[in-house]
Description:
This is Hydrolase of the HAD superfamily. With 240 residues, the chain is an alpha/beta fold. Helix content is 41%, strand content 10%. It folds into 2 domains: 10-29 and 99-236, Rossmann fold, CATH 3.40.50.1000; 35-90, DNA polymerase, domain 1 (Orthogonal Bundle), CATH 1.10.150. It has helices at residues 34-49, 54-68, 71-79, 83-90, 102-109, 123-133, 156-165, 184-188, 208-215, 228-236; strands at 18-21, 114-118, 141-143, 173-177, 192-196, 223-225. Magnesium ion binds at residues 22, 24-26, 178-179.
Amino acid sequence: MTKPASLPDPSDFQHIRNWVFDLDNTLYPHHINLFAQIDRNMTAFVAELLAMPPDKARLLQKKYYHEHGTTLAGLMHHHGVRPDDFLERAHAIDYDALKPDAALGAAIKALPGRKFIFTNGTVKHAEAAAGALGILDHFDSIFDIVAADYVPKPAQLTYDKFLSLNRVDTTKAVMFEDLPRNLSVPKSLGMRTVLLVPQNLEEAVLESFERADAEYADENIDYITDSLLVFLEKLNMNVG
Length: 240
Ligand SMILES: [Mg+2]
């Protein structure tokens, strides 16, 4: 098995006209740790909902995340939670850690064709995060967990919904993601796939099953990089 490359082969991207980006830990790096705030809010929500101590709530939250793809999907399935209430609470975070990234904005803007954010979070969260990064205006649209009818990636149904809504030709598309399991469907549909990994993988706190994912680079991953900016800038030197 050949290891996925870390820098783009320009000929691999010459035909790409649809640039699909996950949001969290993809458009901003893992070490920003924005998701930790969301994670804490989700734990607090579960603790209050079920009148549990935080440590028990956290275990249940992680169980739902693992078994249902998101904490929300588990809470809806097992407890009939209303998604709006949960999402509002989960994303009540401070975006100050995200600073305007003019270089990233320029690199995204320079890519030929349409750009999308495809997230298991909400449009509101994506707009706030991308807005704080100063890159929001470069995206054509955002597809979120509400548009997905609360069925998270990596469900095939959700990719199909995203792709048909936006009339994306998968043979001319690439997906950027930090979770390897979210790249299997894109690869099977003929998309290029790029995995974002933390800059200090050893120090990063990952869920155990996420780490297990990250350690094997399978045939679903064309490229692995720890810098979206470096990757896109390298592409822009050769594409367009
Ligand atoms: Mg992500």
